[in-house]
Structures are given as C-alpha cells and as structure tokens.
Design brief:
The chain has 24 helices and two strands. The chain is an all-alpha fold and 538 residues long. Strands 1-2 form a two-stranded parallel sheet.
Amino acid sequence: MLQAAVIIASLAVAAPIVAIVWLAATGGTADIVHVTTTVLPRAILRTAWLLVLISIATGVTGILAAWLTTACEFPLRRILTVMLVLPLAMPTYLAAYAAGEFFDFTGPVQSAVRAVFGFTRPRDYWFPDIRSVGGAAFVMGSVLYPYVYLACRSMFLMQGRAAADVARTLGASPLRVFFRVQLPMARPAIVAGLMLVMMETLNDIGAVEYLGVPTLTFSIYDTWLNRGSLSGAAQIACVMLVIVAALLLAERWARRSQRFATSKTTSWVHDAARVPLRGMAKWAAMLFCLAPVLAGFFVPAFVLGGYAIKRLDALVTARMASALWNTVLVGAITAVIAVVLAFVLAYSARVGRGRIAGFAARSAVLGYAVPGTVLAIGVLIPLATLDNALTSLVKSWWGWNPGLMLSGTMFAIIYAMTARFLTMAEGTVDAGLHKLPLSLDHAARTLGRTGPQMVRSILIPVMRPAVLTAALLVFIETIKELSATILLRPFNFNTLATLVYEDASRAQVPDASVPALIIVLAGLVPVILVSRTLDRGR
C-alpha cells in the first residue's frame, strides 16, 4: 500500500513533464518553424543575459554580505545579519511593480534629481531605464540574493575555526584567508545558492513582463495565450526543461566535492573570532550590507505601503474578499495534500522498502525545479484527458454534459502547486522524521501497534511542529505563486497574486498595493523563522 502511494505520487509529478514532451513532439511543423526562427533566438539570448547579470549581482552581494557578517565586526552587524534575509518576503513581481513606480519619471528619485539640478524634461538628463535587462537584473537581484547569502553564511560559520583560524595563525590577512581558504571551500554552497537564484529567475513572469524583458517564461505565456499555440508553448517549455536539467547537473557536479568543505572539527564562529573593522572600512561594510536590504525590501514596502494607506477601503470590496477567499482555499487545500504526500514519501524512505519505491520517492520531489509556466502547460494535458474520460462516462450514464470538472476549475491550480511545492514539504517532514530514532518504531511494533496505528498515535503527534511548519511553508508559497496560477485559473477566478497582476498590467499599481502588502506580510512568516535560526548563530 505504501509503495503504491509513493509510485502514484511520483507519476502525478512526472505526468506534466511527460505531457510537455509529447505535446511538443506532436506539434505541427509550422509551430516549430515559428518558434525556432522567431521566438527562441531572442528569448534565449535575453534569458541567458538576465541569468548572467542576476548571478553576478546575487553572487557578489550574497557572498560578501555573508563573509562580512561572519568574519568581521562593524556597526549594526547583529541587526543586519537578520535583516539581510528580509527580501525573501518580497516576491520578484511585487519588487518590480514598486521599482517601476519608485524610479519612474514621476517617481521620487527622478523628481529629486530634477529638483536638485533644475531639469524640466526627460531629455535634459540621462537616467538609467528600470524597464530594461539591466533594470530587471537590479530589481530581481536585490530580492534573490538571500539564497546565496544563507548558503554561504552557513558554510562560513561551519568552517570558522577549522581552517580560517589556522590560516590566521600562520599570519594570513583576513582578505587572504577569504580568497585563498574560505571562498574555495564555500564553492559548493555558492553554486547551490546560485542554482536557486537561476531557477527563481526562470520561474518569474510578472517582473520580466512589467519591466519589458521577454524571457523564455514570458514567451511561453505569449505563445499560448496571444498566439493560441499550445504546442508552440510546449516546444519553448522543452527548451526551458533542458536549461533546468543543465542547471541541476551543474549543481550536482559542484556538490561532488562538498565533502571537502567541512570537517568533524568545525564549530560555530564566536564574537572573538571576528576581525574588528576600523575607520572608513567599518562604515563601508555597514553600508554594503544595508544597501541590498533597502533595495530589496524597504523601498518596495515603502512604495506599496504608501499607496495602501490611501486605499484601505479596498479591503472591504467584493473583489478583494473573493480573491482572499480563493487564495486561502487554494493554499489550504494544497498545503494539506502536499503534507500528506510528503509524509508518505518521507516515511517510505524511513522504512526503506524497495528500490522502485525509493526511485519513485526521489522522482516525486523534482517538481520544484520545473518553472510554473512549464508546469502549467504540462498539467493541462493529463487533466484534459481525464476531463474527456469523465465527460464520456457521465454522458453514457446520465446523458448530460458536466463540462470541464478538472481543468476548468481550481483543481488544476492545486495540482500544479502540489507538484511544485511537494519538495519543500517533503524536506521539512523528512528532517523531522530523521530526528526520531528508529527504536521508536521498533518499540511501537513490539507493543503490538500496526504501521497505521503507530503513524497516527505516535509519529504524527511527535512530529506536529515539523508537519505544521511544512504546511505553513507550502501555504505561503502558494499564496505568492503567480506564473502557474495566471495560466491555470478558471474564468473570473482571482487569487491575491493574480489580482495584483491584473491591476499592475493596467498600470494601476496603487490599486494593487493592498493585496500586495497582504502577500508580503504572509511572506514574512518563514523569514521570521529563518531569522530566529540566524539569531542563534550570529
């Protein structure tokens, strides 16, 4: 029974990917010619250039911020150590909408430039265009750098006294220790952080569309909805799958030497191990760590909050109430399903029954690597097949047409969200199970408890914190998700994310501020959990 459940879960996650490949292969030659000659060359070039720029921005910011907060002492270091993760609460599309308002011609920055220098017209002066590849890299990089920061910080902390202190004892300067010892040892963590950054970049659709950078993700959306070519969109999606597979292989290749990055003698860095900075260096370090927090969290929050204060009446509109209810409903159902499946997968790995079940369990958690737009296309194919089968069955039995019971309802969104965020739930639940010794299972069996009885009366109560944390993380990520929701939502169905997207698409960012702030406040919950962990190791 357990093996069957694991295999079904893995097939449910794999079905969208198989469907995309099949749809792309069976598409017409006209779609292939159009995609390969018109869409792909420019989209791949823009996507690659954006990935390079964002990787550089997040890599430099995350690595240096992690090193400064772990190896050096400067003003506000303890506060900035925690604040540096705040941009994780700000989805990239919300940061883009806020940046567009903040850096626009009528925004506060350019208004201040004109007031100071006496300019009156746009052609009187030059100002960087936020709606460009460089602007998109700046905005998205300021939000995504915490992935690199967290990965590098944990590595710098763990290797503190094991290697860096030895190098200092031998007379090496802090900078020499960083470049010759700490940075090479942290290479696997850096690559892992950058892979997450690249996958989040590939998944984004709201920010790149608003900032005028048509990437591969946007090309899928445009080819499907504007050109009406689902097979063409699937062909672009296959290109994205190849890119994602290449990123995963690169990350696996980088991790092959991770065993050399730590040792059994590692320990956490204490305050005495940090080098106190003096003079201008300490203020430069403080400003360097403060700048990405301002750009990635406080500036967008300031812009959205300023608009929201003037539009609090939007909280009591029927449109807001409907979107809020849909968001909570989809998020709650997705969280429950994902946690149940995650427990099945984690428990299957715990009892270790069979190679097939083990392979299926590993396959079932690959959905997070697939961008939301790609997953949306793949979800439609199996759901449409089931819809047709159910319609035929209902017609033959009762003689009426029930319509689209799966692909035309929020079930499609729930399916896609579950497949995408199952990895997150499984990782949290599995970590909780690993803290429980196997002797607990053996003792329960000795006392006559069956497997289901043991799970229900012993494991689940003991693991309640891990289960609730997993459910909370999936719920919040579902609230923030836009790329798959915007493609799969039924007619006249809005979540908070799609409500923000609709208003921003009409250049009505102020109207989108209230639901945007709700999303940000929800996103602060996991950030607070991460901050508590950082606080213990700072």
